[in-house]
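Suppose you are handed a protein chain with no further information: no name, no annotation, nothing but its sequence. What can you learn? This example shows the usual starting point.
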Amino acid sequence: MELQDVTKTMDHWEQIFQTEINKMPLAFDPAHDSLHLKRVVAMAKRLCRLENANPYVVIPGAWLHDFVVVPKDSPLRAQASQISARRAVEFLEQIHYPKEFHAAIAHCIEAHSFSANIATKTREAEIVQDADRLDALGAIGLARCFVTAGRMQRSLYAEHDPFCQNRDADDTQSTIDHFYTKLFKIAKTLKTKSAQEEGQRRALVMEKYLTDLGQEI
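A reasonable first move is to predict its three-dimensional structure. Written in structure tokens, the prediction is:
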């Protein structure tokens, strides 16, 4: 890293990242808004400290992980993280972010996506992926799940067999099915020890919700 780059603190870079993101003309989506982004960044920082990873890779990767937002129902959804990674590198070049970190940051962004199914090759990529996936779990994960379901006009649960006991889950029809097709699977894909511990806690929140829902319907 060049001397002039070393003198720029991460606070300085984060101000640049946030200013750029604030300018992005995004469609309103409470599940992928600036609050989601800030939660992912905060969790990534926490995991970075606990896992002794490189903040010059993790923090930009977290800020820019959804640099290009592709709707959940878009045919390009599986390519969203790769599109974001390419655009993020272009942006990093424009702001003269230290070039030696560009490839590692791009990998963090590419590999964070569940639908892209790209293997993580670094601890930093594991952290960005874990931070994003943790936001799909627990109390906040429940809220985001139902917000997205409302936007996509899906029913809350299947009237017959709402908890998929005797049928295959189909989250294109029922929101609760999404717990079985993706959310509980996400909890099992967390890579770092710190994220796994937090993921277990959040999975219990979701399991209790389903138990409570079963008593009410």
